[in-house]
Amino acid sequence: MDARHGAKHVVFSESESLVRGTSEEYPDDSQNAISLQQRALLHFDIDGDPIPKSSKTGFLRCSLLSSCCFFVFILVATILVASYLAVFKRTALCFPHEQGESNFSDHHQHFVQSASTSSAVHHLKELTKLPHVAGSVEDMATAAYVKQAFERYGLKTSSTDYEVLLSYPLERSLVVLYPNGSHVSLSLQEKPPNMDHNITFAEAIAPFHAYAPSGNATAEVVYVNYGRQEDYAKLEEMNVNVNGKIVIVRYGKVFRGDIVSIATKAGARAVIIYSDPQDFAGGGNSGFFPNSEWLPPSGVQRGTVFRGSGDPLTPGWPSTPNSERLSNREVAALLPKIPSLPISASDAFIIMSSLGGVVAPREWHGGLEIPEYTVGAGPLRLNLTYTEAQKLTRIRNVFGVVEGIDEPDRYVLLGNHRDAWTYGAVDPNSGTAALLEIARRLELLRKEGWNPRRTLLLCSWDAEEFGMIGSTEWVEQNSDLLAVRAIAYLNVDCAVAGSGFFAAATPQLDMLLKEVTREVQDPDAPDKSVYDTWAAAARGQPMITRLGGGGSDFIGFLQHVGVPSMDIYFGEGKSQIIQFIILCMTLFNG
């Protein structure tokens, strides 16, 4: 049977596995995993056996954030579960239950007041001890940690493995070739910041672009600003030809995968992308991490250049053990065609300071300490060599389940990914720690006799950084079930990057967000709620932005299945959160 259809079922029997490929196909520590799709109503005991239907039952390392942010960090967890509880409160008003609305209010208040900074600090410290890129031993260790924490907090646990195509760097070099015959090999390395405590940087993966193809190119260089289509159009007006050239582009306006795609269509042989101080270092005049939030001159942004989501080998269907997979030729058609490398502002300075040609438009000038930004081409040339290793690699999603007592076949999902390019203190493990803090507080409520009306699924995704792979594969495997039974998906990726609440959602969840933020005190203004300061900061503009494009694990739920979704964080809007995301793609986030 075609794997695109055979892996999905509209009806699930008691014996069918909705999260296949854990116990039998993938042995080791998945042996005791619970299958979320083992039965339609998700009734199961701690060992994963069916229960009869009648028996219902930052520490932020390297001083990335100040200590005051821990209260904000706890606040994220409070808002998330307040959202959970609000969903159930609405259900209670429609369907009277023995718990009653007054008891609901008591439990709600207890949840809000039971925040534990020490719990969140402990989880974040443990999760960010080592770099844990997807597919690594260290990444699997974080999966085990989250699973054990869920179990410790009394949740039924499950894990699901997939074999997916991941990409890693083997060889990287970038040599500047001057007209006089001399040359300079760029370092392509990050310089560890000066910090008081000991952190090992040797294990961090080298800066690279995931899924960039192996290749070698020697050519003149052209500067193309942010690498947008309008930037290439401007070069054409200036009679600057990029065909056969290596283009150098600054991060900031366009997804790196689109930068490479646009460059390919323009005829470029390779792409260099750097972080300009104007965009990521406050112009270079406000200090650098760890003394400020700004990216140091040696900082390099890692990231994927794959423009899709999910495993490139199985577009549209899950990467289970016996799935059909694309051929090498077919998958190559979906991946970037020319090599690319991310470099630091320090390395970019060496290139840009020697670039000739006409002066770039004023709006193309950035924060490098050079007299003028010129577009080239020449007189220098670059020799770029990159070798990647594509590997079929195991990833693991982990789930904690609290079964609903009235509507166990209706699901409210809260998700966050664990994998990180390096240490992941903000992105994603501030969100992971919030997820585990939620699990702890749910345990407190359940000890008081509270149970949700609908089933809660706490989801810890893997391989998000490579293109939302873990969540997308799971959604593809369970799309029919989620389409009819999922109530909402709540996503938290970078839970805390500073103060100031930000929310993006589908319209169905707007009122819910406003309701719950009215019930939570703002950490920076004790006499106001989060809603009060959030509304004031909006200054008449829409408070809630719409989810669209890519960015995080809500993609599969919203764009593939149509599940109402939200994504929230603290960080003074997009400018600050983007800065901290960039730090999390470098060594400077551990």
What does this structure look like?
GO terms for molecular function: carboxypeptidase activity. Pfam families: PA (PF02225), Peptidase_M28 (PF04389). The strands form three sheets. Strands 1, 2, 4, 5, 6, 8, 9, 10, 11, 12, 13, 16 and 17 form a 13-stranded mixed β-sheet that branches. A two-stranded parallel ribbon has the order 3-7. A two-stranded antiparallel sheet has the order 14-15. The protein is built from 17 helices and 17 strands. The protein is of the alpha/beta class. The two termini are 46 Å apart.
Sheet-strand content, in percent, reads 15-25%
List low-pLDDT spans: 1-73, 90-99, 574-581
Which outline best applies? globular
Kindly provide the radius of gyration, computed on alpha-carbon positions and rounded to a whole number of angstroms: 25 Å
Strand count: 17
Mean pLDDT: 80
Helix content: 25-40%
Q: Give the helix tally.
A: 17
Distance between the termini: 46 Å
Major pleated sheet: 13 strands, mixed
Which structural class matches the secondary elements? alpha/beta
Short description:
The chain has helices at 3-6, 69-94, 100-113, 117-127, 137-152, 229-237, 256-265, 277-280, 328-332, 345-352, 429-447, 469-477, 479-485, 510-518, 530-538, 554-561, 573-584, and strands spanning 156-177, 183-185, 209-210, 215-223, 246-250, 270-274, 303-304, 340-343, 376-402, 407-417, 454-461, 486-491, 501-505, 521-522, 525-529, 544-546, 565-570. It has 590 residues and is α/β, with parallel strands linked by helices.
